[in-house]
């Protein structure tokens, strides 16, 4: 797997709070079109408010739990990471 493919795979993955040791990745999941924001407009069950046409869909990724091992992986490519 190329570095670029690995980074794409990791950016499309997530962990869940009830199982932070397990990494999930689904390249066909529509969640890959949602970006991180502290001022998010989408939650686990859909839109949190009316979203204007053309407005970016955002979610607080921290609800996944994001254990330290996952944040460390994301830091390797700071140009595409949403984590500090």
UniProtKB/TrEMBL annotation:
Organism listed in the record: Triparma strigata
Domain SET: residue ranges: 29-62
Domain of life: Eukaryota
InterPro entries: SET_dom (IPR001214), SET_dom_sf (IPR046341)
Taxonomic lineage of the native organism: Eukaryota, Sar, Stramenopiles, Ochrophyta, Bolidophyceae
Protein name, entry field: SET domain-containing protein
